[in-house]
Fold this sequence. Notes:
Layout: E1 2-6, H1 10-22, E2 26-31, H2 34-44, E3 48-52, H3 62-73, E4 79-83, H4 88-95, E5 106-110, H5 117-128, E6 132-134, H6 136-144, H7 157-167, H8 172-179, H9 183-196, H10 204-217
Parallel strand pairs: 1-2, 1-3, 3-4, 4-5, 5-6
Helix pairs in contact: 2-3, 4-10, 7-9, 7-10, 8-9
Keywords: DNA-binding, Phosphoprotein, Transcription, Transcription regulation
Domain HTH luxR-type: 148-213
Pfam families: GerE, Response_reg
Amino acid sequence: MRIVIADDAVLLREGLVRLLTESGHQVVAAVGDGDALVEAVVEHRPDVSIVDVRMPPSHTDEGLRAAVEARRLVPRTPILVLSQYVEVSYADDLLATTGGAGGGGIGYLLKDRVAAIDEFLDALRRVAGGGTVLDPEVVGQLFARRRRDDPLRELTPREREVLALMAEGRSNTAIARALVVSDGAVEKHVRNIFTKLTLPPDTEQHRRVLAVLTYLRN
């Protein structure tokens, strides 16, 4: 994969470059601020970009805003955001940029996940392939903030489990393995989720994105 890295922490940035290069990937740009990220994405059109949420000058959400701008200029460009802390609103804002069918890969992981190299590389591949990957800690906090009147109330406990795993970017087959059930059982749960959330007929990928957005917002 051709990858852009944006992180103002030099040690982490260089560590990511080394890790990805040794894993057979090409880092086409490694930058330290949001403006440079946008320029690199426009110039190189990478397979995926890895972006730190907090970058200069204010170290608040410059990385996130740059990622959103990059996706505006290069629609559907895959972005994997790394954050030191769980910020559910950041994940929500980023997922909102999917904007419909074929919205492009999106990921939000805590930086600690980079230490689990195989899992991190797998998440990166899923995002590059157009999938949606959310850190389990983010998923947990999303459940904690559910509102009483949320549209998820009609889902069974098992359907909620399936939707949570969908939010982590897992395929139906991967969900089946995680829950120790058949692929057919997962497909049935997914159809029920689409029906109960009254999602409009469309491509399955689009409906999965809409289901995850509903999950995040409630």
